[in-house]
Amino acid sequence: MVQAARDGMVNGEWVFYTADLFLNDVLGVAGNWKQRDGYDKEALSAYRFLFVLSIRDVRNNSQYKTFQAQVRNRGAVKFNKSKESIVINYYSATFHDAVLLFAKGLRTAYENPIRPRSYDGQLPLSVNTVVRWTWNSTFQGASGLVYINPKGDRADDLTIYRMTDEILGTFSVVAVYYGNEGAYRELRSINWRTSDGLPPLNEPVCGYENTRCVQITSAVSIGGSLAGLLILCLLGAGIRYCIKHRNVKSKHHSEWLAEWEDITMDALSTQSRMSLNSNSSLSKPSLRSDDDSASRRSKKKPPPSSGRLAFGTWQGRLVMVTLCEPHIVNLKKMLSEVKVVRGMSHDNILHFLGAVVGPDHYAVIGEYCSKGTLQDLLADETAKLDWIFRYSLLSDLVKGIIYIHGSPLAVHGRLTSACCYVDGKFVLKVGDYGLPTMYKRTIPAELTYQNYVSLYWTAPELLDRPNGPGTPEGDVYAYGIILQEIILREEPYSMYELEPEGKCTAFPSFSLETDKCFRTNGMSNFQKSSPGFETRKYSSDRISHPRMVPPGCCP
């Protein structure tokens, strides 16, 4: 709609139609004209010419309210959920009414052992016969008036919304289509916002390409007008370019900056949200029972995320907030870092949205992933992960790291299972990449338990550089640790009966052996012999193919 306003299509010669079944996509908070993104004025001017077609709202009907209350009461008792967490929409009511409709047809078929209207030769109690008894019938259901026409199709009531208050920008119902009557009625006079008050023509007066309105003038007047217009255009374009360049540059450097007060934090913690997600996801095809590993998980539970992840709402959208350690930030340096990560886009990396830079809070804002971190998902004992799903997670992880290695960053550097996020479609996204200024950590003189745990994914040769840029080989090492976590669903190095400090103190000897190997064979030989992520991705894709799954891996 903003583009339509810029193309001059809001002059009364055009109107626009769209569908919004649940009044959320266009007229809801996430899709209306008021987004506070700097384009609200253009969007408002275009939305004045927008018609929105929707299914008639039945949420205030007594039948729908009764159905909603009964579903939530039964769901709370049977599935041990809060009533507010049970989502009910129009389709839920239609499923209920479909069952009632079939039951009415079945009862009618038993009560009338005669051939129904439009009998087609089927047995009296066949499914086709029962369904035909429902044709040309009407009853009041949870989704409103259910009318099945003589052809066996349901005819819904539809409403048309139009902006009726141009100052506030609010939409109201202007017309209704009654499906059972096949009648269209206007509830109020429609202002077409044209010069004559009539609906726009099917084709603009000057044509779609504006070629029918050519004025014939002399060559001299045309030449003089064009010369003067050219001078004015060049002068105006120069001034506009300078102003626009300055404004765009200023906006580009600041639109990602967020104030802590602008973020509305979710009342649910990460762990409680993970619990809700796991309960609701058990019906997904990718989640099955894997009782063969349940006994191992009961002995060794992977550590939950450290509490640095929060969920909230920013600029009208759900986001994830990664809390960072407070420290002095070089804003000039950070601008160059943000420029790099904002230019990165891939299905398997977490999209950077913004950041909070002091003075009391420091955080990175990313796209919303409802399942939380991979570490939390593996630690949740109620989530039963089959092998196909595990292979899919590994494949997504490899794809994300390959993209990062081919980007200007060239390396992740801090890869762990806690910075891998899983969205509502169970797609893994690699996060916490780039932005070393924000993710910088203070290393105490005496390491704590959490400090030792955070070193589990660090390659031995990088232990003395905890805030270093990292290396591609270090990412390969971290991938191997995550691979172990996904396969065993246990914390790293769980096969060693040692505390985190004991595990990390053994790393220096590994580092000495690694350095010795590099000095003997050379780093280039090591890189040639070590398979890269492209090779690992090929292997992961072959393993994740249903025909390649080893027998007995899946329940």
From TrEMBL:
Localization in the cell: Membrane
Residues of the Protein kinase domain: 229-555
Record bears the keyword Transmembrane helix: yes
Primary subcellular site in the record, as a coarse category: membrane
Entry EC no(s): 4.6.1.2
InterPro entries cross-referenced by the UniProt entry: ANF_lig-bd_rcpt, Cyclic_nucleotide_synthase, Kinase-like_dom_sf, Peripla_BP_I, Prot_kinase_dom, Ser-Thr/Tyr_kinase_cat_dom
Alphabetically ordered keywords of this record: cGMP biosynthesis, Lyase, Membrane, Nucleotide-binding, Transmembrane, Transmembrane helix
GO biological process, one term: receptor guanylyl cyclase signaling pathway
Top-tier EC class: lyase
Transmembrane as UniProt keyword: yes
Pfam families in alphabetical order: ANF_receptor, PK_Tyr_Ser-Thr
Region span, Disordered: 275-307
Catalytic reactions on record: GTP = 3',5'-cyclic GMP + diphosphate
Molecular-function GO terms, alphabetical: adenylate cyclase activity; ATP binding; guanylate cyclase activity; peptide receptor activity; protein kinase activity
GO CC, any one term: plasma membrane
PANTHER family: GUANYLATE CYCLASE 32E, GUANYLYL CYCLASE
Name of the protein in its database record: guanylate cyclase
Organism: Ramazzottius varieornatus
Gene: RvY_07548
